[in-house]
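hey so i finally got around to running both of the ones u sent me last week. sorry it took forever, my laptop kept dying halfway thru and i had to restart like 3 times lol. anyway pasting them below in the order u listed, first the sequence line then the structure token line for each. didnt double check formatting much so if smth looks off just lmk and ill redo it

first one:
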Amino acid sequence: MGTLIRLELRKMLLKKRMLIVWALVLFLSFIMITDISIDETYAMIFDKGYGLVPLMGLMMFMMFSGGYTSEYSSNMGSLIKTTKYGKREFVIGKALAAGIGASIINLSIFLTICFSALSKFNFARLDLPLKSLWYFGNSGSDITVLQMILIMIVTIIIGSFFFAQIGLFLSSISKSAAIPFIFGGLIMGLPYIAEDFLPRGLVKYLGLTPLWGMMSCELIRYKVPVIMPIILLVIMGAGIIVLPRFTVKAFLKDK
């Protein structure tokens, strides 16, 4: 299984186009943070971090969209099912690799933003409460900058695994890589777009979307009721467990 995961990770992360986009996004993540004041710059960690969600989504679904369609198009599906890494082992290995790969991509972007901002002030004042930052001005939250960064590291990993399973499931039921790319992008992108159009009183209900579950700073920013993150955690946890089962069934069907 370990060998299978490593092979899948190489296949997902070491594509030339992926490496080029990844390098460009990391460069953008670093230079977009400006040295204004400690409050302003630390607020940018979360403002710019959330602002780069479309690029995170683009890179993730570049990885996932061809997860199974490439196997189907090359007629490798039947061969894979007969190998020792076939059937469920292959699907589980691909699911783990996709989750790990997405986590690496998303965390590298977010942590680059963090490093760019924090290094400008020698990592000082990490105990600043979020309520002192303009991005969280109406939240009244006493969570510190460091605590929010640590929370986001955890939720980004959970969200990455969740979106990985969505992408692989969509790929397993389609012969075209375009379909999982489009539908996966919509699942992640619609809440991002809706935030700018919904009345402020309704925006908090986006707290039930997987995107906000992954970028948990938004849950704090809009003072989402405590029950929503709990419901969201249950939904995402169930998705991480259940979606690979559907993927197995879809992959084992004759194409």
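and the second one:
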Amino acid sequence: MEHQLSAIRAALGETAEFVFIPAPHATKSSYLSEFYEGMDWYEWLPRNSHSASEVNVLIAYAMQQLEQIRHVDVLLGFSQGAMVVELLDRLAQTSSIRRTWRLSVLCSVVALSSGWLPKSLAASTPHEVPSIHIFGTNEHKEVQTQLPECYAADKRVVIKHAAGHDLPRDAEFGRKVAKAIAAAMDG
């Protein structure tokens, strides 16, 4: 993710500190392996197990990581990581956990209701939190519609790009996202 976020990090400069939380399950490959040779890969849930007990372990792990960091203004997740961000937003909205962040940035992801996690965790009402949704215009329609619709329309910003299931690394894209983050933080 550090490489994928390089343009956004450069645009934010010293106004933001990025702390990366690795997913807890090592895996041998990823659909992105062809683009990033020699990297280690991780998943948020074991590849063939999305059971309720695994989800509870995931929630405990994510909350432990956030508690260690202490101060978090923005949660940013890509793909499975963005599903974790939505899960935490959902749990905070239902008062199952304490919300300790101000903004959620979700990149290239479908909604929890897509089947990645139990449907009982899907939002029944829109998440009433500020959010930014970033995705490629050539990604599956579900990526472009399902998740943004899970967040309140008056509190969400959608940013589209042409890089597919990835993040562009050009300066213009970085500035666009940085501007959206700054506006959401000021709002």
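quick thing i noticed on the 2nd:
Residues 6-186 form a domain with the Rossmann fold fold (CATH 3.40.50.1820).
anyway thats it, ttyl
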